[in-house]
Sequence to fold (420 residues):
Amino acid sequence: MWATNPDVTDVITREEQTLGPEEQVAFRDLIDFPSTTYAAFGIYRYPAKFIPHVIAYVLKNYAHSRAKVFDPFAGYGTVGVVSRLYDCDYELWDLNPIIEVLHRITMLEPREIRTRELIDKMVSSEEEFMPDWSKFDYWFPPEFVPILTRAWGFYHSLDDEHARLLLTIPLLKASRNFSFDDMGRMKLSKSPKSKERIMQLIAGDWKKRFYETVRRETENVLQRLSEYQSLAPKMTKAVVRGGVDTLSTNLDEEKDILITSPPYLQSQEYIRQAKMDLFWLGHSEMEIKNLSRLEIPYRNLPPRPVNSPTFSVIRDDIEEEHIKKIYDRYFHGILGALSRLQDKITSRLFFFVGRSSLRGRPIPIDTIFAEHFTQMGWIHEKTLIDTIVARRVFSYHVNPATKIEDRRTATENLVILRRP
Fold:
């Protein structure tokens, strides 16, 4: 396991490395958004989502109008949603292709739509769509298949892109609710709890409930988009690319700011969580398998220099080879990509990271990142420490697989670096 005390996380003093100070903050108090899910910030369930207050803090204090902002691990796309509020151009990448659809939804301007009339057309539609998914029958009870395939047949037959985009998230939510997926977890998985939910649905008026869910969620999306428009987003330049392997892709154009929240140390299987939605949206099984193979846990990544004494000390302390492999693969992949991409960043780097637990030991990812990039010539100004109010990633006090107490800290840290 660990050769020394797992509670020791800051193994090298900050003074030894000329790192900047650490400061406690509460981003939710610094930026005046009603909540982390207000407007278009939370209309789709996404693991480890960037809270908008952090991005707003960065852009308010370090960007300027028409600044070029880049997020190479964009996930839900919150960096883009917030960048429009501060009149910043942005480029977003993510391995998950759903980011392109989500971005188009957040860009919609609210217009009058007869929601009930739209749902009535869905009910009467005879169009059908069956996902290209060999395990479809495993995830959906046969009773629900006709209503699901016809609802999605109607969706894919719509010529009105505005209406189709409005229905996207409501249909995804309703379809997942009518599946065997345990929605309390952040990976696609069955459980006794999810099976019980399906049995309860089957015992009731599930057809009415399905369409009522779609109608209610459609009205919710309209409300969120109206809230977003009230914040006066600007029509800035945007490049949004899904299906991008950030670990091997180069940035063509210089950007002023890189701001990102990279994948967690042991929560990197986002395609596995999202694949049900991707199948409904029309992606093929082969495409999704190919994307899954690009996620960090399934790749053999070449070694990359990690210029961090803290990284080396912790690595030397890991006794189990497979844990050392997880550790190496993460930092070689993430820091390898960010080290390559920083060449095109002219002003500042911002990394929002937590201290994920590995075998019960919190790993100081923020310190490792700060050390690494200062060795590359960047100046570490400071790290802002924010307390996590709500965690979306499924977690345990004790890991059920290892029986080891999860000592992950309840904070996330914003590492701020600048060019000399």
About this structure: The two ends are 40 Å apart (CA to CA).
